[in-house]
Design a protein that fits this description.
Strand order of the largest sheet: 1-2
Number of helices: 2
Protein name: DNA utilization protein HofM
Number of strands: 2
Shape: globular
Length: 72
């Protein structure tokens, strides 16, 4: 598979659009958070905020994402 990213059981390049990705993940397109310049709040992805959100919450969100990721 090489350098190709996987989304579920498909290669990322097979989900070329937001609608393709939403269909692959079985979610509505508007439920996918997009990271871009602006007002992105990483805490929207965490439904239950326990422990309480730390003052530098973005660092915790990054650490949480890294902890949930898969090492390749």
């Amino acid at each position: 598979m090489g350098d190709a990213l996987c989304v579920g059981r498909k290669l990322a390049r097979e989900a070329a659009t937001l609608h393709d990705l939403a269909a692959t993940l079985s979610v509505m397109p508007e439920h996918i958070a997009l990271c871009a310049e602006g007002e992105f709040d990483p805490w929207r992805a965490v439904i239950v905020r326990q422990p309480p959100v730390p003052p530098d919450g973005y660092r915790f969100a990054i650490a949480l994402g890294l902890a949930m990721g898969e090492i390749r």
